[in-house]
Write a structure and sequence with these properties.
Aspartate Aminotransferase, domain 2, 12 helices, 36% helix, 11 strands, alpha/beta, Aspartate Aminotransferase, domain 1, binds pyridoxal-5'-phosphate
Length: 343
C-alpha cells in the first residue's frame, strides 16, 4: 500500500508532540519535567505508549508492540484512522449495512462521505459490490465481523478478496471475535500492509467501563497514528487494570465459554415461543429475534425491568430486536418474562 497516499498530507508532514520523558530510557528518575504534583498515588502522567499492557497483549496475540495502537475504546482507534487518512469533503469510506452505527457517525463527524452496500437476506455480502463502489478517493473499507447487529461472522476469504483488490485500508472490526469460531484476521497482518484489525476490551474481556481498544496494523501506520493521538489517551488506572485482567487468561476463557453456551441455551428456550418468527444464529454475545409484535414485546419486557434493543429501523432488520446474552439468572428471567408475553 502507498502509505503516503493514504495519509493526509498535513499529518504526514507534522512532527509528533514530544514529552521530556519520551527522550529517556525507562528508569527510576526524579520527575521534575511535567509540572505534576509530587504527592499522591495517581499524580503521574500515564505511559503514552502503554508499553506494559501492549507487552502482555503481544504475548497473547503474537503481534509485536510496534504493530499496535491502543485507544480510549476501539471507537477512538477507528476515529484516529478516519482523522489520519480522510480529507474532509473529498475522501470516502465504504462499509456494509446494517452494521455498527459508529462507522457512519465517525464519517459525519469527520465530514467524510460514507458509502454503504446492503447485506443480502442471509446477512452476507459480495466483496465485488464493495470494490465496485470504490474510487480513487476511497480510503477505507470497514467490515465488522462478527457483525453488529446481525451477529454473523463473515468468511475470511471475502476479507482476503478485499485486501487483495483494494488500494486503501481494510479495517476488520473484531469486537466480538472471541465469541466466534471464525479465526481472527490478525494472522494476515504479515501478508497485507493494508490490513487493520480492531479489537476491544469492552466485550469478552468485560471491561467496557474502562474504555480500552486496540488496533493491529503495519508498524508504519501504527507510528503515524501514535504520533497523532492525544499523548495520554489511556489513563494509568486503565493500563494497570488491563495488566491485571490479562494475567487471568483462564478466567477470560471461562467467561467466553459460559456466554457462548448461554447464548445457545437462550436461543433454544426462546425458539419454543410461537410469536417469535425467527431467531438468527449468532457468532457473538448477542443475537436477533424477529417478531411482528416487536414494539409491544420490547415495552412488555421493559415493564418487567429488562432493556432490549430494537433494530427495527435498520436496513434488513424489520421487526427485529437484538438481545444481549446475560448471566444464566438474567437469561432465565428474560425467558420467564417473554413466556408471559402473549402476542
Ligand atoms: C462492532 C463494534 N465495534 C466497536 C464497539 C465499541 O467498542 P469500544 O467500547 O472499544 O469503543 C462496539 C460497541 O458496541 C461494537 O459493537
Amino acid at each position: 500500500m502507498n502509505l503516503e497516499k493514504f495519509v493526509r498530507k498535513n499529518i504526514w508532514d507534522m512532527e509528533a508532540y514530544s514529552a521530556a520523558r519520551d527522550l529517556v530510557a525507562k528508569g527510576d528518575y526524579i520527575f521534575l519535567d511535567a509540572n505534576e504534583n509530587p504527592y499522591g498515588n495517581w499524580n503521574r502522567y500515564p505511559d503514552p505508549l502503554q508499553i506494559d499492557p501492549k507487552t502482555l497483549l503481544s504475548k497473547i496475540k503474537g503481534v509485536k508492540i510496534e504493530n499496535m495502537v491502543m485507544g480510549n475504546g476501539s471507537d477512538e482507534v477507528l476515529d484516529l484512522l478516519y482523522r489520519v487518512s480522510c480529507n474532509p469533503k473529498k475522501d470516502n469510506v465504504l462499509s456494509l449495512a446494517p452494521s455498527y452505527g459508529m462507522y457512519y457517525t465517525l464519517a459525519c463527524l469527520n465530514d467524510v462521505e460514507f458509502r454503504e452496500v446492503l447485506l443480502d437476506d442471509d446477512f452476507d455480502f459480495d466483496p465485488q459490490r464493495l470494490l465496485d463502489k470504490a474510487d480513487e478517493n476511497s480510503k477505507m473499507i470497514i467490515i465488522c465481523s462478527p457483525n453488529n447487529p446481525t451477529g454473523k461472522a463473515f468468511k475470511t476469504d471475502k476479507i482476503l478478496t478485499l485486501l487483495k483488490n483494494f488500494s486503501g485500508v481494510v479495517i476488520v472490526d473484531e469486537a466480538y471475535n472471541d465469541f466466534a469460531d471464525e479465526e481472527s484476521c490478525i494472522k494476515y497482518l504479515k501478508d497485507f500492509d493494508n490490513l487493520v484489525v480492531i479489537q476491544t476490551f469492552s466485550k469478552a474481556w468485560g471491561l467496557a467501563s474502562l474504555r480500552a481498544g486496540v488496533g493491529y496494523m503495519s508498524k508504519e501506520l501504527a507510528a503515524i497514528i501514535n504520533k497523532v493521538k492525544m499523548p495520554y489517551n489511556m489513563d494509568g488506572f486503565t493500563q494497570k487494570s488491563l495488566n491485571e485482567k490479562m494475567l487471568d487468561l483462564d478466567g477470560f476463557e471461562k467467561t467466553v465459554k459460559l456466554l457462548v453456551s448461554e447464548r445457545e441455551r437462550l436461543i433454544k428456550n426462546l425458539s419454543t415461543l410461537s410469536y417469535i418468527e425467527k431467531i438468527y444464529s449468532s457468532d457473538a454475545n448477542f443475537f436477533m429475534i424477529k417478531t411482528a409484535k416487536h414494539k409491544e414485546l420490547q415495552d412488555f419486557v421493559l415493564k418487567n425491568g429488562i432493556i432490549l434493543r430494537s433494530r427495527h429501523s435498520m436496513p434488513k432488520c424489520q421487526n427485529c430486536i437484538r438481545i444481549t446474552v446475560g448471566t444464566p439468572e438474567q437469561n432465565d428471567l428474560l425467558f420467564e418474562v417473554m413466556k408471559k408475553f402473549s402476542a
